Amino acid sequence: MTDFRTFKQAKRAPALAMSPVIDPASWAPHSLGDVENWSYHITQSDADALIDAANEVRNNGIRVEDVTKENFLLKGSFRGVLSDVREELRNGRGVVMLRNFPIEALDREAQAIAYLGLGAFLGKPMSQNMKGHILGHVKDLGGDYADPNTRGYFTRSEMRCHADPCDFVGLLCLQTAKSGGASCVASSVSVYNIMLERRPDLVQVLTEDFFRSRKGDLNPGQKPWYKQPIFSFDDGYFSAVGAGSAIDKAEGLPGVPPLTPIQQEAIDVYRQVCEECLTDIPFLPGDVQFLNNYVALHTRRDYEDWPEPERKRHLLRLWLSDPDSRPIPKPQREGYRGRGILPDGVKLNAPLDVFEAP
């Protein structure tokens, strides 16, 4: 029987820029192996505890967006499992799959309550867009991935390998596509180490700031871009972010210079190495994938969806902030990645579905 808990035997050495990183989140597709190696199967007892806690939240008249660890009264041993999940995200592989989330036993509101309640044991939910959604909906809404202001999760296109602007991201699969749409994950630590061995000159470039587009998610007075390196080091810890479409979509924004030839080469090589390190994970209904965004990258293959709206591929997303997470540079913790998307004057809310891009 496999066990997702590697943090108990994991070894880490203080990380230094331009030196190989020894970190438990350094893994290759062959060492990650089958998804069962890093999964936990939710038992019937666990499922009953989730269902009971969700029902109690609803009976107490608590709004979905107000679910917290304190009012989601999860009982039994599953609390200890979630503590281990959090520790694995922080000090293990940085990826965990929970399987058999009881979606069939819950209506949509109860699914949202149970999912947010589960997530509350890992971190605090963050706003994911300018409408203040703490419950995101990953589904094809007809968006064009090439559009500078379109975010990839509203399209069915294959996306650039990336990391979301939060400590942990969770994806709960409600429905799968007609074909395609596999989730893909890679270790940022492995990408860094491979690049350091092959092209240390380009690694140096990736430790410097790159302009990134906010993709239209900005408050009055904010610039439409922000700056951040891809590889960072802080307090002996390595952290990374992706070189996703935010870098491409920053080109041409006011105040953003074109990429230099060496920057473009560094991005190109980085993306090539990411592809080498990716492993495809076919989502099943009831799967919940959690990633630590500072050591893991993710993307999604393109897909063909069902023609019926009620059958469309649909994932529920959480962005979670963990105050005790891996140290990252102060400007990142206080900036976009540490705070999420904070719309002025908008209250946090948890829509049970969306039918147009926020």
What does this structure look like?
Helix content is 27%, strand content 19%. It is an alpha+beta fold and 358 residues long. Strands 1, 2, 3, 4, 5, 13 and 16 form a 7-stranded mixed sheet that branches. A 3-stranded antiparallel sheet has the order 12-7-14. It has a two-stranded antiparallel ribbon with strand order 6-15. The mean pLDDT is 92.
Question: What's the SSE blueprint?
Answer:
Blueprint: H1 29-32, E1 39-41, H2 44-59, H3 78-91, E2 95-99, H4 108-120, E3 124-125, E4 136-138, E5 168-175, E6 179-180, E7 183-187, H5 188-198, H6 200-206, E8 210-213, E9 225-228, E10 231-234, E11 237-240, H7 245-250, H8 261-277, E12 279-281, E13 288-292, E14 296-300, E15 303-304, E16 314-321, H9 330-334, H10 336-339
Parallel strand pairs: 1-2
Antiparallel strand pairs: 2-13, 3-16, 4-16, 5-13, 5-16, 6-15, 7-12, 7-14, 8-9, 10-11
